[in-house]
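Suppose you are handed only these lines of text.
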Amino acid sequence: MKNNAAPYRILDPDNCAMCGMCLNHCPTYKISNNESESPRGRISIIHGLNASLLEPSESALKHINSCTLCLACESACPAKVDFYGLITKARDRYFKKQKVTFKLKSLLISIFLTNKLSKKILSKLFYILEEASIMNLGFYNHKRNFVNKHAKHDINKAKDKIGIFAGCASDIFQKNVANDCIEVLQKNGLESEIIQNVECCGSLDFNSGRIKKGLEYNQHANSEFCSGKYEKIIGYASGCSSFINKKSNTKIYQDATSFILDLIENKRNEFKITKKNICIHKPCTSKSAEIDFKKLIDILKIIPNLNIFTFEDNYCCGAGAQNLIHNSENSINIIKPKIDFIKSNNIDLILTYNIGCSLNFINSININNMKQVEVKHPITFLNERLK
Ligand code: SF4
Ligand code: SF4
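From them, the structure of the protein bound to iron/sulfur cluster can be written out as follows.
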């Protein structure tokens, strides 16, 4: 007998079975208990929009925008729904229908963070405002993290040429980490320099609804990385590493934290005694950036007297995909259990290798008046502790 039933399309990215197994992994569903703020709800909205059953209204699009792209739902989904593809394509398709303020913010962020001159101006401006205490920037008041200049090294003398990719936001807010990378590599006998002509990996635009622009940046970055100037390219923003790994498929690139952990693991460096309560945060990008979180903890355990904590709450911190800019209330609510954990365990220092997470932590630390708590990139911490 002929079977006319449509075959069940296993592994089809659009094939959500509505089972709900992703729901309890989603940070926006956790804080709202609202189906529209869940992965399954978002899939229904996207299907409704694509089938013209729903208008791309502000109320429909806000649920697409509030997704942090943490991809916890993708890992939990038995049908292997390609959530990253679904959300980024929906954001791109309906970008023109977004609120004017959303479009304006997205465009301004892109312009300011992907242009060398504007990055320089922003960096200087933030530094001056903080130094003069004219303005509490709220999301960033850790002055020590502002280093106006990247360290300069004569790469032509180098045996192993390692190019350091600073990324866009990290190039403004974590310039010091690039210098720390150089120093850690030097302590291990490797020479490196900061790549000067790549401003963005493309994830900024790609993830916020401008796929074409994001791919242009990605292609430019890729051709520079593969130009033969360097033996290896390392980038210290895990969001960039995650995107580059997804889109570029190049073996020359490795996340800088991952590279440095391999280096330190093999060389067995010695560390200074450090009496601190530190909490290590695992960003959602760890898996796709190929950073071995356990290896980081194992290496930090070598540091004498260090008291190491990890967060009990495994949810995304809430900053991803520009949510800290567009939906800051969500970011503050999502990160709250982590802030409570920091308070109740007297944490002195948080380590995280994602720039969005760093800014989210700093924002909530400021709001909660916990300015004694520092936030650092693990590479900076390792460099400071390395003898
Ligand atoms: S990517 Fe994260 S925030 Fe977005 S729907 Fe999935 S679990 Fe929720
Ligand atoms: S786990 Fe996958 S199949 Fe189940 S509701 Fe979520 S997205 Fe759909």
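What can we learn from it? The longest helix spans residues 328-344. The two ends are 76 Å apart (CA to CA).
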